[in-house]
Amino acid sequence: MFDFKVSTHSHFDEACRKFALTHNMTELAQQADMKVQALRNKLNPDQVHQLTVAEMLLLTDLTEDATLIDGALAQLQCLPCVPVNELADEKYSAYVLKATAEVGMLAAKAASAEKITATCRRGVVEAANTGIRCLMLAAIAVQSRIHSNPTLASTVDAISGLSASVGLN
Length: 169
Hints:
It comes from Pantoea endophytica. By secondary structure, the chain is mostly helical. It contains eight helices and no strands.
């Protein structure tokens, strides 16, 4: 059904490095009930020890930072994660505005004639991931609004059915 292919790029290794630089390893190791050196080693791609899936999930849960999950998904050539537990229908406009801002940042980088450095590339990837995340949250918020109103949901279903029967899809 799906054709996953592991990327030859080191997306997960880069995610581990970024995650380690972003967070206080001493505090995080204590929260995760790990030794700080063990955590540093597991986040260092040059070391033998690697994060387990359970540890990756725990660190993501403790920090609410999707960097490790996004890195693992990018390694499989998949899009970033969309944490639907963040979904709030009333934040629809905020999701759309944030996605628009991220796309604007991507457009500015694309139009720039400057050399793309590693830091610049990381920023572009982060902006793209945030934009995708916000667009999906906006789409889910709209879907939730439609399905929370039975009359509107019935109307949408009827129109979808008509367009399918007429061959508009």
